[in-house]
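Training component of the fellowship. As part of building independent skills, the fellow (R.M.) carried out the full modelling exercise for a liganded target. The chosen ligand was magnesium ion. The inputs are recorded below so that the supervisory panel can assess the work.
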Amino acid sequence: MANSILEVKGIKLAFGGVQAIDDCSFHIEEGTITALIGPNGAGKSTMVNVISGTYRPDEGHVIFDGKDVTRMPNYARAQHGLLRTFQISREFANMTVLENLLVVRQGQVGESLFGALFRAKSWQAQTKELVAEANEILNTFGLYRLRNEYAGNLSGGQKRLVELSRAVMAKPRLLLLDEPMAGVTPALIERLGQHILELNRELGISFVLVEHNLEVVEKICSRVVVMALGKQLADGTLAELRSNQEVIDAYLGGGARERVGS
Amino acid sequence: MSLILGYVATLLVTFFTYNIFVIGLNIQFGYAGILNFTVITFMAFGAYFYAVFVMPHANNASQVFYILGLHWPWPLAMLAGVVASGALGYLVGLIALKRLRSDYLAIVTLATGTLVYGLFGNNNKLFDGWSGLFNVNQPFQSVATNHPNEFSWIFVVFSGVVMLVVWLFANRLYASPLGRSMRAIREDQDVVDSFGRNSFKVRMLAMVIGSVIVGIGGVLTIQYIGALSPAGWTTGETFVVWAALLVGGRANNLGAIVGSLLVAVVFNEATRYIPQVPSHPNLIPNLRNVIIGGLVILSIWFRPQGVLPEKKASFLEVPLVDKYAQGFPGDEPENALSPAASEA
Ligand SMILES: Nc1ncnc2c1ncn2[C@@H]1O[C@H](COP(=O)(O)OP(=O)(O)OP(=O)(O)O)[C@@H](O)[C@H]1O
Ligand SMILES: [Mg+2]
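Fellow's submitted model of the complex:
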C-alpha cells in the first residue's frame, strides 16, 4: 500500500449549534487524486479548512506526511507543501495575473527586508526566472495572453483558472481543491480535469478534489471519500460506491444521479 | 528679498517633510492596506524623542520640564527619535495586527492617537505638556542662530536628501518580492497566509517601516522649526496626510508626491496666508479643513484611484517555451497524456 500523505482522525468541529464535522476520519494516499464528495452542507469545505489550518478542530488530529500538524498555523502547513484553493475565487484583484502567480512562490531572495533592499540584483534575476516559469504555467491554462491583465477584471471561469495556476506555481505536495470546476463551462471542465491529471502524473502532486460533478470524479479520481452530515460515510472507487446503498441514499440517489447520466 | 527666499525655503521643507509622511503612510496603507488613522502621532513621537535626546538636561528654574535631556549629538538623537517612532508602530501592531481586521485596527490607531495626545498634553513632566518644547537644538546650530536664511537653505538640501533616500527606499521596496507580498496582503490576507507567508509578520514590517519613515519626517520638522507643542499635531493633521495620499494616488509614490504638493503645500499653505477675520479667528483654519475635506470627496468621486493611480506591474518579456502551441490538451485528451506531449 502507498504511504498516506494525509490522515485526519476523529475530527469534530461545531459552529455554535451546528456540528459541521462529527467524528470524521479518512486518509489520502500519496500521489493519488482523491475525490471528496457529499451533499451540500456535508462539511466538505469545513474539512478543507480544517486540513489547511484555516479552522482549528474541537477534537481530532490532522497528520500530514507523518507529522501532527493540528496545532500548526496555516502558513506553516503551506510551507510544508500542504496547499488549498477556495470554493469562491479569491484572486488578488488589483494585481496582474502574472503577479498573482509570482506572489505565491516561497523562498524568494527579496522576501526579507534585507534581501529586498540589498540583494536587488539577485531577486531581479530570480524574478525573471519565475516570470518565465509562470508564463509557461499560464500558457498551459490558456491565460498567457491575459498575463498582464488585472486579475479582478477576468471572468468567473478565468478566475478559477488563475486560482488553479497560482496553486501550481506554489509547488504543492498535496493540493486541496474546493470545487475548482464550479461555474466553469463544460469544455473548460474537461481541460481542467486533464491539467489536474497531468500535474499529478508529471509533478507527482497529490490532490484532494471536492467536486459535485461525478463525471469528472469518474475520469480523474482513483478513490472517492464520501461525507454526509459531517461524517465519513464510505470510501472506495466510484464503481464500488455506486453499489453502496448508504451512499446512494445520502448522495447519489438525489439530484446527482441526473448529472451522472448527463 | 531675503524674506521671500526664507519663505520659499520653508515651503520646500514643508513639501519634503510631507512627502516623507505620505510615503510612510503609503507603505502602510497603499502597500499593505493598514488603516493608520493617527499618522501624526508617529511624527510627534519622532520629534519629541529627538528633542529630549538632543536637548541638555531640563533646567527646573526655567519651569520647562521634560524627560531625559541627554544632550546627544543631533545625528544620534535623530536616530533615537526614529527608533521611538518605530517602536510605537511595533506596539500598536502587536495590539492590533495579530487578531484585528483593518477596520478594528483603524479604531485602535485612533484610540492610540487620542491617548498619546492626552498623555503628552496633560502631563507636563514628559514633554512640557501643552506648552511644548522650544529652543530644541538644531543641526548646523551655529548657522541657524547667526544666519537663519542660510540655515533654511542648508536645511532644504538636507531634508531633500533625506526625502530622496526615503523615496528610493520606498520604490525599491515596492518592486521587490516583499513589496509584492504586502500588496497581496492588501488584496486578501488569508490567501497570502494559505500560501505559506506569515502575513502578520509582513504587515508588522509594513507598520514599523511606515512608522519609522513618518518618524523621520517628525524629526525633520522639529529640527527645522526648533519647537513643537500639541497644537502642532492635532488629529486634523493626520487627515492632511491622508488627503494627500488619496488625492495623489495610493500605492504610487509619485502620486504621493503630487498629493503632498497639492494638498499639504498648495492648499494648506495658500489658505494660511488669507488674512484673518478678527471677529472669527478660527474661521480660516476651519475653512482650510473644509476645503481639504471637499478635495478628498471630489477626488474619491471623480478619480477614486487618485491623480496618479497605482501603476500596473510590467515585467521584461521572457520568451515563452510554447509547450501547447498546437492547442490545449483538453482538445485531444488521449494525446495530452502520451509521453510525447508531456515532454517540454
Ligand atoms: N463559518 C461557519 N459558521 C457557521 N456554520 C458554518 C460555517 N461554515 C460552515 N457552516 C455549516 O457547517 C455545515 C457544513 O458546511 P460546509 O460548507 O462545510 O459544507 P459543504 O460540504 O462544503 O457544502 P457545499 O457542497 O454546499 O459546498 C453547514 O451546515 C454550514 O451551514
Ligand atoms: Mg463547500
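The panel noted the following from the submitted structure. Strands of chain A lie at 4-15, 18-29, 33-37, 59-64, 67-68, 82-84, 174-178, 206-210, 223-228, 231-236. Chain A touches chain B through 63 residues (CB under 8 Å).
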